[in-house]
Design goal:
Chain B: Its EC number is 6.1.1.20. Chain B: This is phenylalanine--tRNA ligase. Chain B: InterPro entries: aa-tRNA-synth_II, aa-tRNA-synth_II/BPL/LPL, Phenylalanyl-tRNA_Synthase, PheRS_DBD3. Chain B: Keywords: Aminoacyl-tRNA synthetase, ATP-binding, Ligase, Nucleotide-binding, Protein biosynthesis. The complex is a heterodimer of chains A (about 625) and B (about 525). Chain A has about 625 residues and is α+β, with helices and mostly antiparallel strands. Helix content of chain A is about 25%, strand content about 25%. In chain A, strands 13-12-11-8-5-16-17 form a 7-stranded mixed β-sheet, with no helix packed on it. In chain A, strands 21-25-26-30-29-28-27 form a 7-stranded mixed β-sheet. In chain A, a hairpin with an 8-residue loop joins strand 9 and strand 10. Chain A is elongated and about 100 Å long. Chain B is α+β, with helices and mostly antiparallel strands and about 525 residues long. Chain B folds into 3 domains: about 130 residues, Ribosomal Protein S8, Chain: A, domain 1 (2-Layer Sandwich); about 55 residues, Winged helix-like DNA-binding domain superfamily/Winged helix DNA-binding domain (Arc Repressor Mutant, subunit A, Orthogonal Bundle); about 290 residues, 2-Layer Sandwich (BirA Bifunctional Protein, domain 2), CATH 3.30.930.10. In chain B, helix 5 packs across helix 6 and helix 11 packs antiparallel against helix 16. The chains are: A alpha+beta (about 625), B alpha+beta (about 525). Strand 23 of chain A pairs antiparallel with strand 8 of chain B, so a sheet runs across the interface.
């Protein structure tokens, strides 16, 4: 959420009253803003100490979709209307004397299609800046650039002293070597190529260079005398820069997204039209599109939407009349009137400052805010349902509890880990078919999603060196495997794992943990040679780089359940009668190899056990699954 | 030693009936009466041992004595500070004056400092050049005794020349179990004693009820998961079904698009979300649904203007680690709406049995049949991932608690009323709601709770009603409203256990000892 710092005294002046911090905090809270900080105390402290101090500020957090609140002008306007101290302003387009034919024109060249095709602009006439309003004007552009404009990627704004330029203007895209002008803050002229190099060292501009750098053509705006206005989205020209003395402001906006283009040009124009000689007026500009058609920008006409008192009431739980709803909406700067032909219908006109309203539900929310969320009645949904845990959670909890009762401590390592943790350090090779890999981690600790719980347990032991021996820990949680059959190309699997660390390795201790879990799950222990048993588990010696040779075993499970469905069920019964079993490996256990211990910096022998819990999920009352 | 003293006490009591003053005893191995402090301490040990067997009783008497401190002893032996300073100096005109540095070496720092001042004041010494000399040869070798009395003692105590010492002595009487035999008492009842019957005649050592018991050797559950269990129970008590969330990997479609999060939303940035390099793209979701979602974003529909922003199929199919469990909830809601779409999920006869008929339309039995909607209350508590730099309050992975209620004509008042109950079950009584922005809920409410320790309102969770742009493409009828809310599991756990650094709670750096000692959770 963006935070806007406003001058406290100025805001009080605009609101026509002073608030205590608590009062203003409450007002913000009710309106959906958040007062982050009031710097008054800090400032007074500094003054006492004789330190340089700024004027007290209020730092206000703004909802991310309310671009109209990104400056003091917009905040004051919205709150004044909310406090019912004034009506919402009506923004107006004012044409030059000669009407449409006298409009300033901007011709869009087809070449812009290759890089930044969309263009809009507006003129603010007879404006009077003060130092504060000038700073606010610059700050709003920056706030828009950082938020809706997505760091100028989608939309970029330029503002110019119109009196320094000679219309008509044209917007083109040209090879960077052929563009040359003196950019803002410089007297010397540079080619666009040179600017790209020059600005690499300037932190506030370097982050935007990538948007156009590799394009064969760069967007550029000229006046009729070939004077550059700006090279969006990077920099304006020095020639047309606005100053405190600027009386007529030309706003150019370029974009790759039409909706955001319109929103941004409307925001800049409506917010600062306040300072025009005739407040809230904007002079439009005629844009001649590459196809020869023309378009007049900005389009600040209000959108007409219909809301229904019945809908507002059914969503909020209130019983308001249409007139009451309309009154609430007015406090949110939405002009609303009850349809004389249908008393349930309210015609709402959405001003150009409120592009956040898409749907009747957005209007309903504004009515609820004006009513006050905390004034709404308390109810309790009558929805009557039966609670039910998930089978896998229940299963996991059984094992967790049994292992804790058996004297092991539950730990909670992270799910993301380094590639080394998951593979190399366990003497396992990555076949690139197992683990899900992260493209953009900020640190090497988060390269893969773990496929085994063991590394997390070993890291926990490493960090708990000072704990008395033996260390007995376990975890039951998810690991993730690649699975190309699924929509998401991956699947979680619930594992259970335990590690025992002592002066001697204690294979039989973790083996006992396996036996205990299976006993509690009523899975009988069977001999690895026993082909007559219908169900059970057994362990069988194996070789695995992670374990010490001769002290490693795989765990196998012979499931009683056959896949449901008549044919496979029948097949299962036949196979079972013939003692053909599909024993699945569910995990392994063993004494960890000393090279593994060395990698994890553990100086004592350890035994580890890990297996999947998935086959033991109880068939509960069927629950929905996230499986495809 | 102790035993021989015990025997001495018992024997003395046997012959004398009582001991009026333990200072009269002659401890074995010594030749004189036990008047010293140490000797009385040894006697006390023996007495306590006998007392625990109720063989004796005793009364404690205190005696106060005075002893010299180290400084006092020095003065008593070597003379006062001023006298010592005086004595080392040459008489005026009869030798080299001694400078202060040298004086310190001769008599020590402390004596030089204190003694010099007093000797000057008394007129005993004086300056000559840079050094000091004796001025007088008075008859100060006279010694004598100080008059006695509390005033003098107090003065000496104040000057730290003497210290008060408390001494003890005891008067001893026979106890209930008096005997002259000090047979070792039993400390515990044993199986052998039961067999032999000796338990009837044995004497038993008195149990020290002030001591701690022996630590147990059982295991422990992790504190965060204890809180998880408590919250899960709260949900179950309120009739919620746990949603399957075993899907850390999600596509941009399910994590964002389906929730009506615009493709240009900052949450989808590489800065904030972990994307996958391998596998990198999902298989396509159901085509018709995908198209409905795409359309509501790009062109609007269902009464919405939509974002009217460019749409990239690539953004939808990008695989990522879910940033919220709402991705799983979206998938569940999509399944919940299957019947409304006229689809049959295979083998779902029992699927909705834990749901009830729509409560709001209890009289209108036909609606449910026609559009297939059944209400549901769902929850999950599972891990989510954010591409954040780790610090004391942020981890790249944490647990999200999420609740969802779907029913016809649910209202904001239901949501608020329900939140009050939900949070009061977590021990949070005072809550209030702030309007907020969230791309997939409208209205969106941030939940603030009053934190009595911090004495301010703190944000504890988010809630809202899912937008029609999310629900209607899934196939839900217009009058179905869905409430959702979420909070982190870590935050209430950190508050519960008074933890400031999240890394001491989650991850491999957690101390096993802390896990072992984390108290139970009862909100």
């Amino acid at each position: 959420m963006p935070t806007v710092a406003v001058d406290k005294a100025d805001l009080w002046e605009r609101l026509g009253q002073e608030f205590t911090t608590d009062e203003f905090d409450k007002l913000c809270f009710d309106y959906g803003l958040e007062l982050d900080e009031d710097t008054t105390e800090e400032v007074e402290e500094n003054i006492k100490k004789g330190l340089p101090a700024e004027r007290p500020q209020l730092k206000i957090e703004i909802p991310a979709n309310r671009y109209d609140l990104l400056c003091i002008e917009g905040i004051a306007r919205a709150l004044l209307v909310f406090l019912q101290k004034q009506d919402a302003p009506k923004y107006k387009l004012v044409y030059p004397k000669g009407g449409e034919s006298d409009l300033l024109t901007v011709k869009i060249d087809p070449s812009t299609a290759a890089i930044r095709p969309l263009f809009a602009c507006a003129i603010l006439r007879n404006i009077k800046f003060t130092e504060k309003s000038y700073a606010s004007f610059i700050d709003l552009q920056d706030k828009l650039h950082q938020n809706i404009c997505r760091r100028r990627q989608l939309v970029a704004i330029g503002t110019h002293d119109l009196d320094t330029l000679t219309p008509p203007f044209r917007y083109e895209a040209k090879a960077p070597s052929t563009i040359k002008f003196a950019p803002l803050g410089k007297t010397q002229e540079y080619t666009a190529e040179e600017l790209m190099t020059l600005y690499e060292g300037e932190k506030h501009l370097a982050k935007y260079l990538h948007i156009i750098r590799d394009s064969p053509v760069y967007p550029i705006i000229y006046d009729s005398k070939d004077q550059v206005l700006s090279m969006p989205p990077i920099i304006n020209s020095d020639h047309s820069k606005i100053t405190l003395n600027t009386r007529n402001v030309f706003i150019d906006v370029t974009a790759t997204d039409q909706t955001k283009l319109d929103i941004v040009v409307n925001m800049v124009a409506t917010m600062f039209s306040e300072y025009c000689e005739e407040p809230f007026t904007i002079e439009p500009v005629k844009i001649i599109l590459p196809n020869g058609q023309s378009r007049i920008t900005p389009d600040i006409s209000a959108r007409q939407m219909t809301a229904h008192a019945s809908y507002v009431n059914s969503c909020t739980g209130l019983r308001l009349s249409s007139t009451e709803v309309a009154t609430l909406l007015k406090r949110m700067s939405l002009e609303a009137s009850v349809n004389p032909d249908n008393s349930d219908e309210i015609t709402v006109s959405i001003p150009p400052t409120r592009p956040d309203i898409f749907h009747e539900c957005d209007i309903m929310e504004d009515a609820a805010i004006a009513y006050g969320f905390n004034n709404l009645p308390d109810k309790f949904p009558a929805t009557s349902t039966v609670g039910q845990p998930l089978a896998i959670s229940k299963l996991s909890d059984v094992v967790r509890l049994e292992w804790a009762l058996a004297g092991f401590i539950e730990v909670l390592p992270l799910i993301l880990c380094s590639h080394e943790d998951n593979f190399e350090w366990l003497n396992h090779e990555d076949d690139n078919k197992t683990a899900v890999k992260i493209a953009n981690p900020k640190t090497l600790e988060f390269q893969v999603v773990r496929t085994t719980l063991v590394p997390g347990l070993l890291k926990t032991i490493r960090e708990n060196r000072s704990h008395a021996l033996p260390i007995k820990i376990f975890e039951s949680s998810d690991v993730v495997f690649k699975d190309t059959t699924r929509e998401r190309q991956a699947r979680n699997e619930r594992h259970a794992a335990a590690v025992y660390c002592n002066k001697s390795a204690g294979f039989e201790i973790v083996h006992g943990m396996l036996d205990r879990a299976m006993k509690m799950l009523e899975i009988p222990r069977i001999s690895s040679q026993d082909s007559s048993a219908t169900t059970g588990y057994y362990i069988k010696e194996t070789t695995d780089g992670m374990y010490f040779p001769g002290r490693a075993a795989n765990i196998y499970y012979r499931s009683k359940a056959r896949p449901s469905g008549t044919i496979s069920e029948l097949k299962g019964r036949v196979e079972s009668a013939l003692h053909i079993h599909h024993d699945v490996q569910i995990g392994s256990l063993g004494i960890l190899h000393p090279t593994v211990l060395e990698k994890f910096e553990i100086n004592f022998p350890c035994s580890a056990l890990e297996f999947t819990l998935e086959p033991f999920k109880k068939q509960m009352q069927k629950v929905w699954t996230n499986e495809d | 030693m102790s035993e021989s003293i015990q025997q001495l006490i018992l024997d003395t009591l046997d012959t004398q009936g009582s001991i009026a003053d333990t200072r009269t005893l002659v401890v074995p191995g010594t030749s004189h009466a036990a008047t010293s402090h140490d000797a009385q301490l040894a006697i006390l040990g023996a007495l306590n041992s006998l007392l625990s067997r109720e063989m004796v009783t005793y009364e404690t008497n205190e005696v106060i004595s005075h002893a010299l401190t180290a400084e006092g002893a020095q003065i008593a032996n070597e003379g006062s500070h001023e006298a010592r300073v005086w004595s080392v100096l040459p008489l005026k005109g009869q030798g080299e004056p001694i400078n202060p540095g040298q004086l310190k070496k001769e008599v020590g720092d402390e004596t030089a400092k204190v003694g010099q001042g007093r000797a000057f004041k008394n007129g005993w010494i004086g300056k000559e050049g840079a050094g000091l000399v004796k001025l007088v040869m008075p008859t100060i070798f006279r010694t004598g005794n100080l008059s006695s009395g509390e005033k003098v003692l107090a003065d000496l105590r104040k000057r730290k020349l003497i210290a008060q010492k408390k001494g003890q002595w005891f008067a001893v009487m026979k106890g209930a179990n008096f005997s002259t035999s000090i047979a070792k008492p039993e400390t515990d009842l044993t199986a052998d004693m039961l067999t032999s019957g000796s338990w009837k005649t044995s004497t038993y050592k008195k149990y020290n009820f002030e001591a701690e018991g022996i630590p147990t050797s059982g295991g422990a559950l992790h504190p965060l998961l204890k809180v998880r269990e408590e919250i899960r129970n709260n949900f179950l008590e309120m009739g919620f079904c746990e949603m399957p969330t075993q899907s850390f990997v999600e596509s941009g479609f399910w994590c964002f698009d389906a929730l009506f999060v615009p493709q240009q939303h900052p949450a989808r940035d590489l800065q904030d979300t972990f994307y996958l390099s391998d596998p990198s793209h999902s298989l396509p979701p159901q085509e018709a649904y995908y198209n409905r979602v795409k359309t509501v974003h790009v062109d609007g529909g269902f009464g919405s203007a939509g974002y009217r922003a460019p749409w990239q199929p690539e953004e939808s199919s990008k695989l990522l680690l879910r940033t919220h469990t709402t991705a799983s909830s979206a998938h569940m809601l999509y399944k919940l709406a299957a019947k409304c779409r006229g689809e049959d999920i295979e083998d779902d006869t029992k699927e909705f049995t834990h749901g009830a008929a729509s409560t709001k339309d209890a009289n209108d039995k036909t609606t449910a049949k026609v559009d297939g909607f059944r209400p549901a209350k769902l929850f999950s508590i599972d891990r989510v991932f954010r591409n954040e730099t780790m610090d004391a309050t942020h981890l790249a992975e944490f647990h999200q608690v999420e609740g969802v209620v779907a029913d016809r004509n649910l209202t904001l008042a239901d949501l608020i009323g329900f939140m009050r109950v939900f949070f009061s079950k977590m021990g949070i009584e005072q809550v209030r709601f702030k309007p907020a922005y969230n791309p997939y809920t409208e209205p969106s409410l941030e939940i603030f709770a009053f934190h009595p320790m911090l004495n301010k309102w703190v944000e504890v969770g988010n809630s809202g009603m899912f937008r029609p742009e999310m629900l209607e493409p899934m196939g839900f009828p217009k009058d179905v409203r869905v409430h959702g809310w979420g909070l982190s599991l870590e935050r209430p756990t950190m508050i519960r256990y008074g933890i400031n650094n999240i890394r001491t709670l989650v991850g491999h750096k957690t101390s096993i000892e802390n896990i072992e000692n984390s108290p139970a959770v009862m909100f």
